[in-house]
Amino acid sequence: MTIPQIQNKKLGLVLSGGGVRGMAHIGMIQALGEYGIHPKIVSGSSVGALVGALYANGNSIQDMLAFFKETPLFKYNFLTILKPGFIDTDKYFEIFKGYFPDNSFEALGRELHVVATNLQKGEEKFFSKGELIMPLLASAALPPVFSPVELEGELYADGGIMNNFPLEPIKEKVDFTIGSNVSVVNNLYKNALKNSWQITGRVTGLMIYAINRKKLDSCNLLFEYTELEKIGVLDRKGIEKAYQIGYENVIKRLEEIEKQNG
Fold first, then answer.
1. Is residue 261 in some structural domain?
2. N or C: which end of the chain has fewer CB within 10 A?
3. What Pfam families does the record tag this protein with (predicted)?
């Protein structure tokens, strides 16, 4: 498949969850754009939902990075003892309103699908119409750090709990799927698993990876970034580094596609 052939396809983009590592999605979008590849339909989970919404909204790469650099992850007056979570997710509404003033899926320039987890029913739910901000907050509300979000009288949390790579809403709507997965699993040295937190993180990562492997493999073009495992999921210092990893990996891959078909 040549770059011009990819450009002429009806393109769909799937963005995984993965916290700060999701800045690699922004680098990927930058690289795709430089090669004239512009997906029209986007689906995302957790941080992938946020990046997808900014992309669908037509925000620049600089605006996307600024959103994550300037949105406080741990603001003392966002702390709560009244909800099940350390931070009150609803407090982010006004910050999001500054980026999405119309607060509507329909106001976006691209079709967007986001997934969140219904904690009460134990099932995933996709959102693509109507109010935008609350579903975005729900999709990114990682327990136990962020409190669940109430939607239609029920509690929702991070989309990655049930579906970290939401291919389903777009697979029948496009003829070429581009995937970006930032929930990576590498080989580890034994001394990398020294405590309970590291073991828990590794086990969770392996479960997420195994559940989504078939969907990842079904993409026509998949980008994964092994270097991201060195960046913590909530490590704000890793924002710029993750972005660079995404950009450099995708540029290299697209250059290889050009050479193969040169």
1. no
2. C
3. Patatin (PF01734)
